[in-house]
Specification:
Elements (H helix, E strand, L loop, with lengths): L2 H14 L4 H8 L3 H9 L6 H11 L3 H6 L2 H6 L9 H19 L1
Helix pairs in contact: 1-3, 2-3
């Protein structure tokens, strides 16, 4: 699992909701610094915390854990010989393209 992408999805939704990390922490019963670590991908959240985040932000767990089903299937298009960072960048580009096409 890509914890950096997981954190990016959480951060994106938190910002779309107009919440600070402190507000998110209050809503999911976690420490503000822990929310920051989750968003940066430097610490792993428990399943209980991820469920709380999903419930608070109205996101599905599959989206949090693996991205949308559509972008997950596009992950098969990404060459395996790329670095992890290159793969993340390409995955973001493919997801953005997919979102713009379906909107």
């Amino acid at each position: 699992m890509d914890y950096i992408d997981l954190g990016s999805r959480i951060r994106k939704q938190r910002k779309q909701l107009g919440w600070t990390q402190e507000e998110m922490a209050d809503r999911v019963n976690a420490c503000t610094s822990f929310i920051g670590h989750i968003e940066r991908g430097t610490r792993k959240a428990s399943l209980e915390t991820l469920v709380s985040i999903a419930n608070a932000t109205n996101l599905s767990l599959d989206y949090l854990l693996a991205g949308s089903l559509q972008s997950d299937s596009m992950a098969n298009l990404i060459p395996q010989n790329l670095t992890a960072q290159q793969r993340r960048v390409l995955q973001r580009v493919l997801s953005a393209f997919s979102e713009s096409v379906t909107s």
